[in-house]
Amino acid sequence: MCKFLKAALLALVLALPQSVVAKCGDSFADFVSDIKKEARAKGYDAALVDSFFANVRVDRKVLKADRAQGVFQLDFTSFARRLISNERLNKGVMNAKRYDRIFDRVEREYGVSRGVLLAFWAFETDYGSYQGNFNTLNALMTLSHDCRRPELFRPQVFAALELYKHGDFSPTKTTGAWAGEIGMVQMLPQDIIDNGVDGDGDGHVLLKTSAADALLSGAKMLKHLGWRAGEPWLQEVVVPEELDWSKSGLRTQMKASDWAKMGVKPRGGKLAGHLPASLILPQGRKGPAFLAYPNFRVYFEWNQSFTYVLTAAYFANRFGGAPVFDAGQPERGLAGGDLKILQEKLARKGYDVGKIDGILGAGTRAAVQDMQEKLGLPADAWPTHQLLNRL
């Protein structure tokens, strides 16, 4: 869900009298009662509200899924090899041919490459074959009641209510992912309201059953989030043995032509010399290397995981004919318990690494890179045992 959408939805909630705003952490029955009051205060008919929430309940499996995202502890190479297979690539090529007219329309109207959508379609639901079996309303209400991130999910409950009002959502039959996303490309209810496209002309936006609706809606959302037509998003490169590694990472942008002057070369094709780009070293200076262009940052509005985003962007390149990336010979990185220890040490030194979870997120990468620079180590943001020992 995009950042400015979160802010807008939260503003609507805050505009209501606080006496009718449901609070997380109370008993679920009281929470449902307060949500219903809030819905009526927003102007929804009482009978509609009662019908919508009639069978809602807590889903403990949603909370379990929310707390068990261990796959994101994998390094980029391991994660990419797990998600990308020849079968998944070939299936994507077949779908590109099957829905060629839809992809032509996507590229013409929204400027989004078919490879970008094919990669999301593959990763989110394996081209629609598995869209999740969590009851969507129960998932959204469970996560709204849970006090970890209610501000993200509570507005989605009311967006689902709006879809229900128009006949495009069933509180008992609509299912999807544990976090409330629906359909082949997994969009939240508010995203469907804002960016849904009736691609097949049947008068409804049905992301679960219509590939045309799903693909066009996904493309419209990417454009809404800032996608720039006709520009690349990610390019594999070869880096020299010596470089100012502190300039790597998303926090630094230079023209691709300036990276070329520093010895960075494309592994295939030509660099987009006029575009700003960041040098991405997901496993340090001895591992895979990529230049990330402005469109790459749009990916983070779809998903916040660095590893997921990089893998999705790389997979999109594969649909355009790019070869398998060069994994290189990266130094052995930290994982699990060792990475948690490093995060704890960095946090004690005043760095904001986010949650101590053993996941190499943006905050941890930035802290690692800064500490490497202070200690005179190659500042490539890749946490190693050498850094841990030095600390």
UniProtKB/TrEMBL annotation:
It holds the Pfam family SLT_2. InterPro entries: Lysozyme-like_dom_sf, MltB-like, MltB_2, Peptidoglycan-bd-like, PGBD-like_sf, PGBDSf, SLT_2. Keywords: Signal. One of its GO terms (biological process) is peptidoglycan catabolic process. It comes from the Bacteria. Transmembrane segments: none annotated. GO terms for molecular function: peptidoglycan lytic transglycosylase activity. Residues 336-391 form the Peptidoglycan binding-like domain. Gene3D superfamilies: 1.10.530.10, Bacterial muramidase, PGBD-like superfamily/PGBD. Residues 1-22 form the signal peptide. Residues 28-316 form the Transglycosylase SLT domain. This is Lytic murein transglycosylase.
